[in-house]
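Incident log, structure service

09:12 report received: a user says their structure output differs between two submissions of the same chain.
09:20 pulled the input from the user's history:
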Amino acid sequence: MLSLFVSTLAKAQAEQGLPNEGLSARKRADLSGEILLDAVGFNPYTTTGIYGGYYINPNEVATLRLNQSEVADHNLNVKSLSVGWKSFWANSFFTHLGISARKFDWDWNVSRYDVSTGNYLSPEHLRSEYFTLIADLAIGNQWQLGNFTIGTEWVGFSVPLSTLGDEEVSGATTQTFSYDLNAAREDIRVSKRAQLIALR
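09:34 re-ran on a clean worker, output below:
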């Protein structure tokens, strides 16, 4: 999960830097808030979004993140709202612990076949919509270059905690291929598994 953070907001919080820290740590001492762009990401789906942070102190940041993913192959749309806590342990190295609520909206476009005539029919849509609550932990680096920020979460792990809503597949008929229906159900099962994440 690779994310490029571009800072668009920085406010002065302290006039003095941290003389024993690296350059990024000293520059964080001048920040009280930031708005960052998640330019590229994988969550595990390709994502874009926006991220906000409030500096409790130069090494502790309360975070809020909104992401959206679209997967054309499955007509999948995922929206995610996350709150978290980022802790810097060195000049640029940090850990991030968060809780995310994700909304999954699946719309599979599948073929139909009429056994009696041997003809393919117009495609049908299988649907499923549900929410998952996820806990995640990641490590990464973030560098401060004035009011410009660049960084990434190198590796992490996400664990689903619960599912809300009906994740059953709807829209199937007697002419729906069992292969398509089973594939849709497998997509749902995979979306609710614990996942190793990298380069967010």
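09:41 both user submissions now match this output. Likely a transient worker issue. Closing.
09:42 reviewer note: Residues 23-106+130-166 form one domain. The CA atoms of residues 143 and 192 lie 33 Å apart.
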